[in-house]
Amino acid sequence: MYQQKQYIKFLLKSTNQHGVHSPFIYSLVTKCFYDRKKHEAYQAISSYKKALRNSPEKLSVTDLGAGSRVTKANRRSVSEMAKNAGSTKKQAKLLFKLVQYFKPNSILELGTSLGIATHATAMGNPESKIISIEGCPNISKFTKNQLKKNGVKNVSLVTGDILKEIKKLNTNSFDLVFFDANHQKEATLNYFESLLQTAHNDSVFIFDDIYWSRGMTEAWETIKQHPKVTVTIDTFFWGFVFFRTEQAKEHFTIRA
Question: CB–CB of 123/97 below 8 Å?
Fold first, then answer.
């Protein structure tokens, strides 16, 4: 119910490229968000998810975050997880386009899950170095095999408590960070604060499910107001954060 109400509000205040006066955001929206080309990689992105949805495997899952909306069972089928959790096909394609557009060299993903987003990210720029952190050992092991099976070679998959693993990172900066792990207010803000030092002028932070719950929306509003944050985009399912010092602080609500 909370998400439905928020979505109605989003539709009422959101715009497309015609409501955007920032050249940087206008270019991102028109050349990336609204890019309608049928990229060759889309076939592989669809096949990756399809294989998961057809998988007969079951995994014992350790939930370290907000868990699943659909089931509380610890033993879950891969096919159900692929159907109900992780990035949708549309989101995976957008992630691919974003990585193609920004060409980030160093990428961090929090919450690998079954690797749908990881795989799309890797295809967007095979030259990039991707670190992906997953809290559940069984999911991590399964996904490592899936990525290997699909020829993904530029992902380093780390297993462990995400906040602890963030603190162990020896990388000074990330060009893109995808936050798709613990969908709770306190954890999201902790991740954000811990990774702020890795952001540079051209970094982009992407937060998944900013309307997952009231707490997640509160976390999103707090992040928007942070003094280091200059530009944000709310697409309802994702929140984008930029640190571009050459731009005045501005918040956009855009249908992607």
Answer: no
- Other residues' Cβ atoms within 10 Å of the Cβ of residue 202: 13
User: In this structure, what token pair is assigned to residue 105?
Assistant: 């060299």
CA distances to 62, 72, 142 from 136, in Å: 5, 15, 10
User: How large is the average pLDDT for residues 71-78?
Assistant: 74
> pLDDT of 135-179, one tens digit each?
999 999 999 999 999 999 999 999 999 999 999 997 889 999 999
Which position has the token pair 């930029």? 242
CA dist 186 and 173 (Å) reads 23
CA-based nearest residue to 114, from 149, 163, 90, 69? 149
DSSP helix/strand/coil, 239: strand
What is the tens place of the pLDDT at every residue in 22-38?
Answer: 999 999 999 999 999 99
> What pTM value is reported for the model?
0.93
Q: Which residue stretches of the chain are H helix?
A: 2-13, 23-28, 41-53, 78-84, 89-102, 116-124, 137-149, 162-168, 185-195, 214-225
Work out the end-to-end distance of the chain between its first and last CA atoms, rounded to an integer number of angstroms: 22
